[in-house]
Amino acid sequence: MEQVIKSNCRGCHGGCGVLVHVEDGRITKIEGNPDFPTNHGAMCSRGLAFPRLVYHPDRLIHPMKRAGQRGEGKWQQISWGEALDTIAAKYEKIKEKYGAEAIVLGYGTGRNYEGFLYRFANLLGTPNVLTAGHMCYGPRIATSGIISGRMTLCDYENHPKCVMVWGNNVVISNGDEYTGENLSRTLSRGAKLIVVDPRLTYLAGRADVWLQLRPGTDAALALGMANIIVNEELYDKKFVAKYVHGWDKFIERVREYPAEKVEEITWIPAEKLKQAARLYAQTKPASIQWGCAIEQNINCTDSVRALVALMAITGNLDVPGGNVSPMSPPWRPVTRFAMHRDLPAEQKAKRLGGSTYKLADRIAVITPKVVWDAILTGKPYPVKALHIHGSNPVITRSNASEVYRALSQVEYMVVADFFLTPTAELADIVLPAATWLEMEDIGDYWKRQNYIYPRTKIVQVGECWSDHQIFMELGKRLGQSAYWQENVEADLDYILEPMGLTWQEFRRLDYFKIGQEYRTYTKQGFPTPTGKVELYSTIMEKWGYDPLPGYRETPESPVSKPEMVKEYPYILITGARSPVFFTSEHRMIDWLREIVPDPIVEIHPEVAGKLGISDGQWVFIESPRGRIKQRAKLTIGIDPRVVAAQYGWWFPEIKNPGHGWQESNINILTDNDPAGYDVAMGADNLRVLMCKIYPAT
Amino acid sequence: MEFALIVNTEDCVGCHACEIACKQEHNLPVGPRLIRIYSDEPRHINGKLQLRYKVACCIQCSHPPCKDACPVNAITRRPDGITVIVEELCNGCKKCIEACPYGVMQFDEVRKVARKCDLCATRLDKGLKPACVAVCPSHCIYFGDRKNIMQRLGKEKSIIS
Predict the structure, then answer these.
(1) Model confidence pLDDT, tens digit, residues A369-388
(2) Consecutive H or E run containing A80
């Protein structure tokens, strides 16, 4: 007997309406829901292949404790009761001896349990939550927050006439809060397209103007555009006069970035830059579709600020078809549920790196190196336990060798995941996490888009629990009983309560659409200290940072370190997305791996010819930190001075507990020296390195 | 009326969702790919360097060489133009694979039979679109009466909005 159940995929960040086919209690198929407003039936390969993950033979389905040396790969199955009792007892002891700050919570990309994890952490009293938020999406949220008051999204429902895609490959990645299908629809309606990307992507090829910039120079490029828009008076004068703070100082700063100088920095011909600036400024409404490429380098907050400035001065902020701030549903918001305000001030003050990276501190995230340092050196205080959900830092954080060392040496580590990743293999206890098909969940609690929707529990696999349930049950063992309801459903009722809905009522909805208002600033101004868009940031000024966006050269580049060019002649970029994998996941899914079996590094054919590299050959890519192997793909879609490698690679099919974490892992090559960080966010430089490349066979 | 499936490769973003939707619909193991996306070499089109994808899929020939090559008459062409393999009859000899001029006939090593695109005939019978058409995020796979498709391709914008 086949059943078809409506739900919402969370294979990546989530958001696509799906129809889940179930036969005799087993999921047989997932397809897009044609009536769902965010994806109109469209799906990506990862979401469609998801049943292969749910029922994968290597899936973690029971709690297990380490039965040999750390990282030896020997495990013993235990009960949930034993697992949680053991963890709780350990955390009690650590808290008593070293303080709650010695326990660091962690998660990977946004997966909707942020609110539950932070609630647990804040109640435990630790200010240290290690996420990807310092260098992925967090900077856009935090920086928009202090400049214009709110994060903005492309308003595809109101049909932008021009989209500027900046450091993003949304049609295959569906990153952050977006599904690429909406951009496809917008382009089909004839919208103009500007793409900023060092690689020829499908979108770059289709663009009216493709700006193939030198990697890491986004901030200079954006300021160069602002310069043209100001000089040619293409800005929205009424908006600027009434709603912008610091216009004169901003103009002074952008005057430092004339097109000719920007050409020198970015490699973008001045004429092309002018063409793009005019197209963006003169087509209304226009929207900027930005990606994490702008964040993962030294100019992280500068780039975000400069792009928010472009949105604002062209009058595209908070207008239909521009960049808008979606309204929140009238529920208990995630920040409130997370109980950030209940973290005692003296504990908050102990946040690792908090006084250095003040913008990160404002959104309660930390940069990873402070944790590795605390584990390895005991400074500024020892970190004794890591509690990680859905994150694989051995593969996804910069300077993987240091990460591996820290994870091998930390006194106690708990990992909740779907599989025994190279990170989970280093744990003392692993917990089997439920997928989105195995839990009751309000999608997407952490997001800021215009729709919310239920995910219902369709199957139970092994003894897997939702992350929500894990935090709730562990919390109850650590004296948090008064703050968690009796079960997950009751917690969801609590979240929905202000909407006048229970979970049982909500779960029957296909989705709930939140109304959108535009130009709210005309009534109440912008939610910033001055009530205006702060192109000159009073908050950054107060913190002692440059109040205006600027451009700094990456410490390791052919410009700042010309002496390195002889040994490491190429600029290595590391962000190229694969259409079939999400970050470090999915390498064990046979249907997906069939499509992309090996990691790929793109090289210009001229360079490859000079180096004796042929198409498809395994090559070594080497930086001052180490070397890895990927397969060469020759393409004229990349500048000869640049090579583009893929990230996130490990090999689940290698059965020893390292699973080949050193073989092709791009983070063996990246550096986590704070000299390369964004000063306010602690965003590390994952994207711009110097390298050499040579045949491996 | 004869059904056909045509891909407007100008709009294909190379996401491979169609391949997985097809795998799922036809319960295929690793190996056979009844629709397959290949990355094309970047080339200049209309004065711009562009990246396009090639899509390989059965074109439902009017006179299918696969059908002619089959020694056990396991391949038939339905009145609606869909060429299908009757799995129970297939002896796994792979003659059809040799005969296909487009190289799209596939072999299923698990079931030891040939596999091909049947335009999701079982979905069509339920009034649904082929799986690949339904999931395509760039709406570049066109399906319907062969005669009408080229016309529809020209009016693409009105179809999507």
Answers:
(1) 999 999 999 999 999 999 99
(2) helix A80-98
